[in-house]
Amino acid sequence: MQxxxxxxxxxxxxxxxxxSVMAGADAIGFVLTRSPRQITAARANELSLxxxxxxxxxxxxxxxxxxxxEQVLNTxxxxxxxxxxxxxxxxxxxxDLPYLKSVSMLDGSALKIAAIDYPDxxxxxxxxxxxxxxxxxxxxFDWSLISKGSIPLWLAGGLxxxxxxxAMQQAQPFAVDVSSGxxxxxGIKCAExxxxxxxxxxx
Length: 203
Fold this sequence. Notes:
The protein has 203 residues and is α/β, with parallel strands linked by helices. It is 29% helix and 21% strand. It has helices at 14-23, 41-48, 66-73, 89-93, 109-117, 164-171, 191-201, and strands at residues 5-8, 27-31, 56-61, 80-83, 99-104, 123-127, 153-155, 175-178, 183-185, 188-189.
């Protein structure tokens, strides 16, 4: 069985990017929309220079205009765009980059609808449904709601070093995505937690 891919999201500091890369992360996520972990495009560009070839640079957006996203893309080179709002597939694909579309897992129908609505997504990112929050909630959803299809599934929502192995066993996702589960405070990652999380995900 191929190793699960691991994405560390919400990075704001050089040392956290370096710790994630050293620990073997496959993808690094920058939050470019309003969030406790938000950074500017210029800051994302500075941090992206520490990311070696082979590690994906992911930019997270939420209901932003095409002009705003293009302005970001003119500043920082991203490999994948991640959309967390009500963007349509047409909105997501207009930048000619692979995209992930988040799915708020309120019930079992959410994933099935998303698979129909976003057939060309590089992945569907399954996150907890928390009213008024978009990712980074630290809440786990019911993994039994997951049904696999042809689109790779990226599992998020309350993952940490203690539950990621169980999540892997039950959901068998293509990738796991962690933010708050490897933090000491919002936007401040803990190198030891990053290492422990990646080791647990691949155990």
